[in-house]
Write a structure and sequence with these properties.
By secondary structure, the protein is of the alpha/beta class. It contains four helices and five strands, in the order E-H-E-H-E-H-E-E-H. A five-stranded mixed sheet has the order 1-3-2-4-5, with helices on both faces. The protein starts with 6 loop residues before the first strand and ends with a helix.
């Protein structure tokens, strides 16, 4: 089993990534966002969690990728959105790990 790393996605490849992968969780961040930076290692750890081995983890810079940000309905950062079969399921603005885990579990 390969450990899943967090992939960087952008407006150019986002649609492709969410349609190629059944279950996707996206973290939206910005360079100025301190709590986004703090969450990065947690997100990476979650991506390596066996429970979530069939889920693709993506990182999107919300400032540089307006189209993707709009599609996910990002209203605050960090923002997490889950996609199933290319469709947005739900999103949450939170820096609490348990809220994010709860969101990811909805994909299972």
């Amino acid at each position: 089993i390969t450990t899943m790393a967090v992939e960087i996605a952008n407006d150019q490849n986002f649609k492709e990534l969410i349609s190629e992968n059944d279950k996707v969780v996206v973290k939206f961040f910005a360079s100025w966002c301190g709590s986004c930076r703090l969450f990065s290692p947690k997100f990476k750890r979650l991506s390596n969690n066996e429970r979530f081995s069939d889920i693709t983890f993506l990182d999107v810079n919300a400032e540089e990728n307006q189209a993707t940000r709009k599609e996910a309905g990002v209203n605050n950062l960090p923002y997490f959105a889950i996609f199933k079969n290319g469709e947005l399921v739900e999103g949450v603005a939170s820096s609490k790990e348990d809220a994010v885990v709860e969101l990811i579990e909805k994909l299972n």
